[in-house]
Amino acid sequence: MTATTAAQFTSGRVINFAMTGFTIVVVPIFQSECAPPALRGMISATLQLQIGFGQLVASLVNYGTKGMDGDVSWLVPTGLQLVVPVIILGLLPMLPESPRWLMAKGRKGEALKSMMKLRKKDVPIELLQEEMELLAASNTNQGKGAWKEIFQGVNRRRTIIAITAMFFQQITGQAFVSQYAVIFYQRQKIPNPFGISVIQAVVGLVAIMFTSLVVDSFGRRTDDDQSRPILLTGGSFMALFLFTLGGVGTIHNPNTTQKNTMVASNILFGASYALSWAPISYTILGETATSRLKEKTNNLATSINVITTFVVSFTLPYLLNPPYAALGARVGFIYGSISAISVVVAWLLIPEMKGRSLEEVDKMFEKNIAVSQFRDYQSGGIGGVITREDNMGNGISGKGSVNVIDG
Fold first, then answer.
1. How much of the chain exceeds pLDDT 70, in percent?
2. CA separation (Å) from 113 to 94, 146, 379, 398?
3. Confidence tier at 405 by pLDDT (50, 70, 90)
4. Which compartments is it annotated to reside in (predicted)?
5. What per-residue confidence (pLDDT) applies to 141?
């Protein structure tokens, strides 16, 4: 807010974005370690829910300040961004630490206290103590691995899955809707572009809320009947609406109906994205890597996500506008093709991990279970028991898990 030059303002934006990057690394880890397996998808999706809410607030602020002149036109939107960080700083001391992290540090007593805060009040202390013993017996929290380990053995597969999720979250072109939609509408001479951006944000937020409620029932890639995949269906509709946008973009001097089709395609693409890759990527990020390498794996995957975001945001103006590529709406063909590729990649690489404890997921990767067999794999041992105990501690025993405990 004190910026007097573009360089100073840009520096502030870079620092702000860097802090956002740290958040994206840490929050999915914290959520996945604290959430019971049967609710991990819903809880992990709340990160994107907050992003969607922020986009809605930003759209409303921009809509309300669009008529302002002078420095106040950017000082007000920038200054309002201080409100949420202040609230978060005030609430942080109330957050319990991750029990798994505390166990990894040998702080068993603190881990039990943290677990008591995270679980239902009427859960017997004996059940929580048993879960603590199981976590202690698991090898997933012993020490920290080296960077080279994330590409060795079974960890290579897990790293590729995490990177894939975060890469396709951005390369599919969501920046076109979230960052350049207003400018695009203005160039197409579509009336009330700021109002449309508010509608887009509302639709996107509703879509994220829906996904957060159903992801632990439907799963990341398919539900129990393998008929309503989230990532696969969402990615398919993203491609469909982007191809529709691109097709209309080939029309010279589009009429009102054709312009409305562009707007509808943009909104529906944003909704499909918010239903699928936007929230599910964070869920996958939080549950894929083994605990001892999770920090490094997530750092790498998030770094690639940030780089991809920069590349897409940097190149979009050149793709959209003259005197460069001047593709306009035809950019939908590019990102529609990438969205179609994302469907194939998700089908081939990303397994269904819903309803399983992180320790159980560890064992399944160690056994190199195929993607197609992940959902119905019958697991036993410590990992399976932790899944049961973790869910029982929240009054949701058995929910979301298909594993059979055989000892």
1. 89
2. 13, 30, 29, 24
3. very low
4. Membrane
5. 47
Residue type, 401: S
Residue in this structure with the two tokens 């880890």, named with its chain if needed: 29
CA–CA dist 218, 126 (Å, integer): 32
Amino acid letter, 379: S
User: Within 13 Å and on the Cβ side, how many CA atoms surround 199?
Assistant: 14
Q: Calculate helix-pair angle for 358-366, 154-171, nearest 10 degrees.
A: 120
Residues in CB range of 22: below 8 A, 6 or more apart: none
Q: Which residue has the tokens 């740290």?
A: 22
Contact indicator for 263, 184 with CB cutoff of 8 Å: no
d(CA 397, CA 388): 6
Pairwise CA distance, residues 340 & 107, whole Å: 47
| Calpha distance 257→254 (Å, rounded) | 8
Find where tokens 């949701």 sit. Answer: 396
Q: Under CATH, which architecture does the 6-89+155-379 domain have?
A: Up-down Bundle (1.20)
Is 90 exceeded by the pLDDT of residue 292? no
Contact between 332 and 243 (Cβ < 8 Å):
yes
Q: Which DSSP string do the residues of 123-145 spell out, in sequence order?
A: S-HHHHHHHHHHHHH-GGGSS--
Query: Per the structure block, which two tokens stand in for 115?
Result: 């677990």
**Residue 331: half-sphere exposure toward Cβ, Cα within 13 Å:** 26
Q: Residue 276 has what DSSP assignment? A: T
- Please, what is the angle between helix 277-288 and helix 40-65, to 10°? 140
| Nearest CA among 162, 397, 95, 122 for reference residue 297 | 162
pLDDT at 381 > cutoff 90: no
Find out whether 40 and 284 touch, Cβ atoms under 8 Å. Answer: no
DSSP code at position 97: P
Question: Which DSSP letter does residue 98 get?
Answer: P
> Would you kindly state where each structural domain of the chain is located, as residue ranges?
6-89+155-379
pLDDT at 11 over 80: yes
CA distance 147 to 144: 10
Cα–Cα distance, 375 to 217 (Å, whole number): 12
d(CA 298, CA 172): 20
Answer yes or no: is pLDDT of 13 > 90: no
Question: What is the end-to-end Cα distance of the chain in Å, rounded?
Answer: 60
Residue with tokens 């089908």: 347
